């Protein structure tokens, strides 16, 4: 199906991003998980980047920008 092809393309793209450092903005923190996005991502359309607060040196703050390693 079209959805499977799209998912395979996204999986391959995301695998190539592993280990890269990207600049993100924190949109929300819910139950210890920060929801972030890059400037190229639209929160209504694109997948978000989720970061568990337990792996960060300091808590992430909504509206702040960070450099993170994927």
Mind explaining what this structure looks like?
It is a single chain. The chain is an alpha+beta fold and 70 residues long. It has one domain. It is 23% helix and 34% strand. The protein has one helix and four strands. It has one helix spanning 2-17; strands at 21-30, 33-37, 49-52, 65-69. It has a four-stranded antiparallel β-sheet, with no helix packed on it. Strand 1 (21-30) and strand 2 (33-37) form a beta hairpin. It is globular. The termini are far apart. The model has no long low-confidence stretch (mean pLDDT 87).
Question: In brief, what are we looking at here?
Answer:
This protein has one helix spanning 2-17, and strands at 21-30, 33-37, 49-52, 65-69.
Keywords:
single chain, 70 residues, alpha+beta, four-stranded antiparallel sheet, 1 helix
One letter per element, helices H and strands E, the order comes to: HEEEE
Average predicted confidence as pLDDT: 87
Q: In DSSP terms, counting alpha (H) and pi (I) runs of 4 or more, how many helices?
A: 1
Intertermini distance: 29 Å
The tally of structural domains comes to: 1
Helix content: 10-25%
**Tally of DSSP β-strands:** 4
Q: What coarse outline follows from CA principal-axis ratios?
A: globular
Rg: 13 Å
Classification by helices and strands: alpha+beta
Largest sheet: 4 strands, antiparallel
Low-confidence stretches: none
Give the strand order of the largest sheet, numbering strands 1, 2, ... along the chain: 3-2-1-4
Strand content: 25-35%
């Amino acid at each position: 199906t079209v959805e499977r092809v799209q998912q395979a393309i996204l999986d391959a793209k995301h695998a190539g991003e592993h280990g890269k450092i990207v600049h993100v903005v924190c949109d929300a923190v819910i139950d210890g998980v920060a929801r972030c996005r890059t400037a190229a991502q639209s929160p209504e359309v694109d997948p978000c980047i989720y970061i568990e607060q337990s792996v960060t040196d300091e808590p992430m703050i909504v509206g702040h920008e960070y450099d993170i390693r994927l």
